[in-house]
Amino acid sequence: MSFLTIGHRGMMGVEPENTLRSFARAEREGLDVIELDLHLSKDGALVVMHDADVDRTTDGTGPIADRTLAELRELDAGDGERVPVFEEIVDAVRAPLQAEIKDAAAARALADVLRARDLTARVEVISFHDEALATVSRLLPGVRTALVAEHYGIEVVDRARAVGASALSLDIRRLTLELVERAHTAGLRVLGWTVNTHDQLRLSRGLGLDGVVTDFPEIRRAVRFTA
């Protein structure tokens, strides 16, 4: 498999994160995969937003879980963009997706959508929460999953294997060659985040990573110079 570039929340370095505009930009820039984040609204919609609260990325305040989808749609998510739901992203872009479950409650809802729309080949489910990945794998056998971690050690390889994940998505600041080699020996792909500079991209290549998560289109264009 070639070295993957993954658009972080779409192309959040140049567009409002987790919006249709951001995802369209990521696809236009040629990112191999597009990453997004999922929470459940008060009425059970799979809302695309990173934080549990709407404060940072919209003109509203308070938890996502306290608002219905209709109420969330009234918010400005940046430059006039509206808060999307997962199904809209599936229809808006053709690129493969990484869907990050931000809370375990969204696991079942996501599994239902992936099954109903036959999306298991296109969507990889990722999460910081081991139990969320285990739940998705139980509900949807054969789905591809990746364990995400920021504070971790070598044991993260065993954690990923325990929940049936096929990949690790790890904070590049803690990555070591030993960990990457152990993960590869265990049959796991290793992705690094967030890679936004040429030095970080060169490090990723030197570590033998399988791909990187980035905020900027320049990293996609620079990949060919670091092969």
TrEMBL record:
Annotated InterPro entries: GP_PDE_dom, PLC-like_Pdiesterase_TIM-brl
Chain segments annotated as coiled-coil in the UniProt record: none
Protein's recorded name: Glycerophosphodiester phosphodiesterase family protein
GP-PDE domain location: 3-224
